[in-house]
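Ticket #4471: complex job returned nothing on first submit. Input attached below:
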Amino acid sequence: MTPLIDRLRRRGWRMTPQRRVIAEAMTGEHVHMTADEVLRHAREVLPEVSRATVYNTLNEMVSIGELLEITHADGRKRYDPNVADHHHHLLCVECGRMLDVHVDDPALTADQQHGFHILGVEVTFRARCPECASAA
Amino acid sequence: MTPLIDRLRRRGWRMTPQRRVIAEAMTGEHVHMTADEVLRHAREVLPEVSRATVYNTLNEMVSIGELLEITHADGRKRYDPNVADHHHHLLCVECGRMLDVHVDDPALTADQQHGFHILGVEVTFRARCPECASAA
DNA sequence: GTCCCTGCAAACGTTTTGCACACAG
DNA sequence: CTGTGTGCAAAACGTTTGCAGGGAC
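Support reply: We reran it on our side without changes. The output follows.
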């Protein structure tokens, strides 16, 4: 898929060094990061990035729909750049590790919807990962 | 089902006025409350209840399994006394109203589990409720 | 009487905000 | 040049903790 940075540029985003490293930090292996983890990754490349800029930027990416905000059980928000393919999550409740999984979306019958207009479904499998299981 | 208070007493809980009103606040209509909403309800009956006691008590009820902690999209924790019957949630992303719904649990195939030991599944339908839809 | 619970206030971690300056367009 | 993004620091927010006193059992 088109890289996140290009998608942002195409939206007319002013592309600053800070935004570039933040977008780059979201790409590749580093999914499901907290804002602080994004900050740490961004600072490895551009040490003067400020915490506020990371929060501002992440929030904006979320509000334009280029990033998915998922609320972890510990109350910290995580950010998922994998917006294009709809997926769900497998979460280790012990260490917080999170994997993407693909399962069919559950659905509500008309009368179960209580007149609500359904926007989407989120499925989270709570689990213990192999590492944490063997540690116990 | 046995009232929450009786279940707590049976566990050998020291039953103080504070704990009683907190447990009572959780019963009946008032499900999915934030800690602060629980505090407000508790104070209507017993004005000198402190915030810390509410947090302590809720956390203890969660840890012994008499209460379910669900993390709302806004990052605030909510508490669900409805532990006995396994259910899922229908959430209005606008006003935060939350309803219980019953749908079949999605399941992961063996190779989708990546060696994780599955503990449970949470399904949340993100939606807009009739009131918020008509307000827009 | 003992131990656990309580209240208060202060600490904590995460996220947001206000404001002057800087730089991408 | 203009407008928007930035850094910094302080505030806001929900939650947790330390400690002295009090009440359930």
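Chain B has five helices and six strands. Closing as resolved unless it happens again.
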